[in-house]
């Protein structure tokens, strides 16, 4: 079994919720950082261990196979030592330093997501079959798009924010 750590104290937004579930579907043991108020939610999504970032330091973890970083900065800098040799660090926040990756014998990647029909179809199939939960935080009309953006900017959304353009 592989170990997977998802670094994001503002979890569980939609990215975090999907990352946890997709890692579990791949058979990983999943660690994630979150606030105490979201512990039950991330455990319900399949995380094996929730780390309260206000009380614990995730960098005490060791020998992880994969770290998925959405924060960059200190979280990224502290992630190198949690990985085992030949581990993988994937960041959506900043480009990991290649020299540091080589020093730790880690494969490091920057992930910038591009729309991909095949991947979206696969995610839809997982959702339709009940293997992927899609939590809706809130829904807005097109006229409320500014409010939807404000909700997103709070960093407190617990799932997808929907702007319904068909009404």
Oligomer: single chain
Query: Gyration radius, to the nearest Å?
Result: 17 Å
Secondary structure tally, helices: 6
* Number of beta-strand segments: 8
Helical proportion? 25-40%
The largest beta-sheet arranges its strands as 3-2-1-4-5-6
Question: SS-based structural class?
Answer: alpha/beta
| Series of secondary-structure elements, N-terminal to C-terminal | EHEHEEHEHEHEHE
Strand content: 25-35%
Sequence-ordered SSE layout with sheet pairings:
Elements: E1 3-7, H1 14-25, E2 29-34, H2 39-44, E3 49-52, E4 64-69, H3 73-79, E5 83-91, H4 98-103, E6 107-110, H5 117-128, E7 136-141, H6 145-153, E8 160-164
Parallel strand pairs: 1-2, 1-4, 2-3, 4-5, 5-6, 7-8
Detailed description of the structure:
- The structure is a single chain.
- The chain is α/β, with parallel strands linked by helices.
- It is built from 6 helices and 8 strands.
- The chain has helices at 14-25, 39-44, 73-79, 98-103, 117-128, 145-153; strands spanning 3-7, 29-34, 49-52, 64-69, 83-91, 107-110, 136-141, 160-164.
- The strands form 2 sheets. It has a 6-stranded parallel beta sheet, with helices on both faces.
- The mean pLDDT is 89.
